[in-house]
Queue: 3 jobs
Job 1
Amino acid sequence: MVTGYELSQLSMLEAEAVHILREVVATFERPVLLFSGGKDSVVMLHVAARAFWPAPVPFPVLHVDTGHNFAEVLEFRDRVVAELGVRLLVGSVQDDIDAGRVVEERGPRASRNRLQTTTLLRTIGEHSFDAVFGGARRDEEKARAKERVFSFRDEFGQWDPRRQRPELWNLYNGRHRRGEHIRVFPLSNWTELDVWTYIASERIELPPLYYAHRRQVFQRDGMLLADTEHAGPLDGERSYEATVRFRTVGDATCTGCVESRAATPEDVLAEVAASRVTERGATRADDRISEAGMEDRKKEGYF
């Protein structure tokens, strides 16, 4: 008789994520996984490949492309999905701008980040997806902390925090009518430290932006932004070279970096363990639009 068998915290989190992924595939007709090439979506895809091995991942991945992404991330995205043999779908914000479905912001601080909601909902509708995997975690931001693992969205793609369904004993309610869908968050209970511990233990490759490198940056509103073709210094702001890394990656116009010498997953682990601010709180300008900015966008259908 075997006694004292116990899973590590990381193994339990992985097992929970595997269970959620398999539950969705068993009960939904057309799931899709949101994949930006960022660390959380990379980990989610890695767990999905493990969950269904030796069979291929049984659903496509979707990237909502603002057109203002870091080139290194797009190159990484294309290579990873090709290696895994996964079908990649791209929802283009530029297509919605060209079609007049959204109006692009103008001005030196303009961002396409909020426009992603329209593109996401349009793409979900066009492909009739009924379950959408996202890499959001509860520790990232207070609105995301309200989410259940299965997050119900109505026929307009909107989220109502007052209509959250109970998930006692890890039992998930995926009931929905035609036109509605469920957002599913397999990494809900992970922390940034858990994600990096998993990346280090599994030797998961990430875009090079996540590790220390030299690049031109400028400071704005207490954040360091990369000096790129999509964002540059305004009058009174100065571009200079620094050694930085990104804690999260997204639209280049609103994703900041931090000064860092962390060049390996182990280095990043030590850095994250000492941090007292989440990656979104520290480096995402789009979360600073108001006290309830993320919750307001989620109610509209945002990630």
Note: The chain has a mean pLDDT of 88.
Job 2
Amino acid sequence: MIIINSTEQYTFTLSEKVTRQKVKFKNRYGIVLSGDLYLPMESDSSFAAVAISGPFGAVKEQASGFYANQMAERGFAALAFDPSYTGESSGEPRNVASPDINTEDFSAAVDFLGIQKKIDRNRIGIIGICGFAGFALNASAVDKRVKAVATTSMYDMTRLMSKGYFDALTAEQRTCTFEQLGEQRWKDAANDSTSMSPGGLPEILIGNEPDFVKQYFDYYKTDRGFHPRSINSNGSWTATNALSFMNMPILSNIKEISPRPLLLIAGENAHSRYFSEDVFKAAAEPKELMIIPNAVHVDLYDQTNKIPFGKLESFFKENLK
């Protein structure tokens, strides 16, 4: 373990009741992950802990750190980390994601937490936000060291990339996408480089964007949530990023989380709500779906009046005994 002091830019203020240490740890693929470990200021006891990551394309100085700060205030050790190939974590090329490696990132976080002297390795949970909620569920299904898992504003990125929003992608469109991605691979191979997607959030809004794009813009492109290392704030994914996501569904074994408890939290007006509802239907007991009135997807990134931290506190205190 490496621990150094951090004075980096964060999108939130560190609680006076909490300490924050920058840490590094490896996943089983040898990628060095960068995280921030949040601890309650005054306690000599052995902590229950939560590993936190997300949203997809965000960094630990944004929503995951915000959650970790709040959970540490409530008595937990909380690790917010940058996924492989993003933020301050290692991995080349940059700005690429993987259903397998990003699932492994959560288990690597559990590895790290379980060898800390002040953390009880039998009391470790996971919180996944947005796209990393799906990876959190996938990791929990196979990693029995995870005693409880909660998600907020969940996306299943493999379903989204494979089928589109609300599963609207046709078989013909899917085939066309694969053909385009194959051509892009030849271009990258010929140029010995990795091309970046022309997508990503626009630099300015012209007014006719879908509501959820406007909401993402309001978080990632303004002082509210902008961070220079965040892909969603200041870049895009690689042009071939969707390939493995379109071919490797991550939630096939969702029932294997049981008998450990599952909490799904979604906004009433979130465009992503159906992901949480469908996982709730597919998962085995014990499970709970909590719908936040009048909330949209990004409200659960940083709005303390919308994020049910009291519920998250009670859920993990009850299940990380």
Note: Residues 1-7 have pLDDT under 50 and may be disordered.
Job 3
Amino acid sequence: MSTFAPAAVHAAVQAAGSPAPTGSETVLFWVLAPVMVLSALGLLFARKAVHAALGMAVVMVSLGVIYLVQDADFLGVIQVFVYTGAVMMLFLFVLMLVGVDSSDSLVETISGQRWVGVLLALGLAVLLIAGVGSFTFSGPVGLTQANAEGNVLGIANKIFGQYVWAFEVTSALLITAALGAMVLAHRERIGEKVTQRVLARRRFSEPGRQPAGLPAPGVFARHNGVDTPALLPDGTPSELSVSRVLRARSQVGDSKQLESQTAAIEADVERGGKR
């Protein structure tokens, strides 16, 4: 940053007791900054929601790396673990629950909601422009003074002291997002609720259903693969014990070979008994 920052800012940083950025920090900034800008643009203009989520993840991870380089260890780790690891995974899970089909977004379920959304967006833009335009920055204090009592304690004083109102509003926003995800993922029950008693009657009354559970695949002490058919009490292999997915893919073990091996074992046992 010392190579492109104005001389006044550079002098203020040195006067505040914070060391000037090194050449490696400057190179890392110029490497990650374009990546973050492109990922942010991908978040805005991506056609698929999953691609937008990946773009947001790249921005968050890059921001966490910049925090770590600037000696904000706690903030950088929280940025990666909480926002990238937890919030992004929650976002992807909501996408999987709700679905990524874009056809639903074309149906306007509430009349006039699009124009209300446009008006709210314009009002928010005016509020942000007015707030940013009237904001004044004080002189930098430097990392030495900011981390005098420790990075964690310094951030705690800022969050629960100077910026406690913004922190609580953000918490309420996250709770609202979680409730919205629950509402979007909810599905109305169309038919009658199926109880355990009804399921048990269907299992024993409907033809072709297995009253008991299917036999587990594999043969004890010889084979434990999921593609190996289980043996019935008479020694014949049961194809029902293998998953129907493996049966559709023709990935079931050789039943004839297994049956021949079982017959050979039984013959050895009979010969041993006769002796």
Note: The CA atoms of residues 227 and 252 lie 5 Å apart.
